[in-house]
Amino acid sequence: TGTGYVNYVAVEAAEYFSRGDIAAVAMQYSQRPSVMSLDRVWEGRHHQRMLIAAIHDRLAGVPEDKRPRVVLFGESLGAHTSQDAFLHTGTDGLLDKGIDGAVWIGTPYESGWKKEVLGPPREDTDRSLIGVFNDIGQFEAMGADERGKVRYVMVTHDNDAVTKFGPDLLVRAPDWLGDKRKRPATIPRSERWTTPTTFMLTLIDMKNSANVIPGQFDAKGHDYRADLARFIRAVYRLDADDDQLARVEKALRRNELERKERVDKYDKKA
Known about the structure:
Elements: H1 8-17, H2 41-60, E1 70-75, H3 77-84, H4 90-96, E2 99-105, H5 112-117, E3 130-133, H6 136-140, H7 144-149, E4 152-155, H8 197-208, H9 225-235, H10 242-269
Parallel strand pairs: 1-2, 2-4, 3-4
Helix pairs in contact: 1-9, 1-10, 2-3
């Protein structure tokens, strides 16, 4: 959406880990910022379905021993449209289209696919293939066998308002404001639901959660850069040891600072 921005941390991490043996494809479906493109989700979903179907059909003609793996990445509204390309098909839809893995960060609350696969059991959904994590530590804390089964990952920060904001807040208390003793540390125990106050405060938090500092990667709010390379390495099954990971993360921060410097110079000239 907007300028057609794609999270370069995710793309560059995958390029580094794969030693450049990768092709990245993205589609822009709206020229407006994400918050003004909510009425275009259906269009983004439709585009994603066509793109994924076209890639699947093209690769069906490639010998299996030469066929590349296909993985998905989506951030925020991009995660929403990417997931909803498989609406009403659960994990079977992803498997049928040959999707080997997916990393979705900051999935909005309104994602229909997310609600379906994380809701009551479905015949088309294998929950062992899905993981929802606040951070890479939760992923790495899983047993090796359980972690090895996970193919489709949603990274959702407990304090990311984008993943919690929806019209439901006007009429009922959300799950994340349930038992105070079981709340994540980032959700104050003193907070309680009232309407329309909770709705308005979450809307404000959603706007503020997107503030990021170039080169300073955090794992909070709507900023997922700190753990992103590690999730990309793990979920996409890319070969890189911890020393290589550290060097890649250093390069990602350096690249971001250099990119900001170039943009600032361009803006001054303009």
